[in-house]
């Protein structure tokens, strides 16, 4: 199940990336790069940091085609996408949660310690968006958005807690996925945010 | 032949990087870093993504000296470089094409599938410039410039097509190099561009 | 001794990173990411470029806790930190020098050639700050600051020179550390800078 969600999620992330590229008036190539980085950049960074070679997508060229295709499709459909804005938010939330679970699982299988497992999940979940924003020359929105990264953190911790309690992997994945998705959608709906840290010292 | 072109190209890219650093009023050290990243950053990223360690330049310290030397020379000569602007454009085009061919070749030898081979060529060809622009805090120009990345893509595809047709490697490299260079120079001369995607939805 | 200095230094770098995040009004999560990247990003990049897996901090979860804790503490104490500004500058200088020595040592043990050893030291010393500034969407300050990177370079060269002269490692580390710290503090005190390269050609 998670692998179907994964394919839907990378396509949705690629489309979100393409829209961000459009805001910067990039050409069609730039759109493809930003779509790719948004969808697969988090997993790429995770694999590099964990020393897991070959990197995931290099063994699945179909993912590359899917992501580039979704980016190009976005260029054609951009004018109509505002009608499905809510669908996008749901797909993005599904991606965030699915990526986090997949990333944690990868690090667990490699035998890393729990803090690294959590960080691998969060890197997979949110760093595609961070890299997209760096390439689009803006402060990463996930550092300021409604409970975005925290959802990733919560999903990873829940997954590890249920695992420690002996819940079977499939059940665990399903529970963590639904709980994470609910938390993210609630956060958007209610506008929940983390406290912000604003600092400007006299001596800066 | 390609290795001489390669040395000329990394020196030219380093000089272009140094000029970009000058536009941001960096100090001499910043100039060296940006020169290095522009010239060798694409190959570094390619090696990391392909899991190819040790990374190329770590085994060729002479390349590091060449790149840093070219960056420092640029600081001394900057005032006179506008006289050789056209030469620069040609050297940059040669670098783009040579980097793309070298990058494809590296991935081919490692046994990666064709989409990854093309992406390795393009990463080598254009990501030095992307990293330079990220460090100089601007939207990467290759995402908006006249047929820049597309030349890299076309060179990689031509090289793979000729290879599939059984053309010997040396002949293939020569043909792909000349064709790519011609395409890039034509694109500059005629101002060819990719269609641009400009998007600002009501709901952004 | 260097390992205690190292722990103090990563905590100090994490606090400096958290303050930078506060200048961008990030939320508490963004603060933790920037703290982490500032403190451990240089070493992470070094390990990736040298092909040294698993990466250092993945084997020392305590470092992750220390860095995140220091970042969160900074949010609580931010209003009072201007009183210890000078202490911060000294801790930051200690971090720069300690990171540089540790980075060189890592590359030496892996058998890399001397230019790569120096670059590994410099990457460890200054790229945490570079990554911090990229994520905060500004031109990296180390490319423009008073003798920052040059101190890292000088420390690495001194360490290698004393090593070539047969000075025992511990004595060498102590001398290089004190000399580097003195150079950095002198540079701040006297406002020493590298020459800046400012360039804007007619044809840009």
UniProtKB/TrEMBL annotation, chains A, B, C:
Main location: membrane
Recorded topology in the membrane: Multi-pass membrane protein
Gene Ontology cellular-component terms listed: plasma membrane
Domain Glycine transporter, first and last residues per copy: 4-78, 90-163
Keywords carried by this UniProt record: Cell membrane, Membrane, Transmembrane, Transmembrane helix
Subcellular location: Cell membrane
Transmembrane portions of the chain: 62-81, 88-108, 114-135, 147-165, 171-189
Family annotation (Pfam families): Gly_transporter
Domain of life: Bacteria
Annotated signal sequence range: none
Family affiliation: Belongs to the UPF0126 family.
Xref: PANTHER family: INNER MEMBRANE PROTEIN, UPF0126 INNER MEMBRANE PROTEIN YADS-RELATED
Record protein name field: Trimeric intracellular cation channel family protein
Organism: Ramlibacter cellulosilyticus
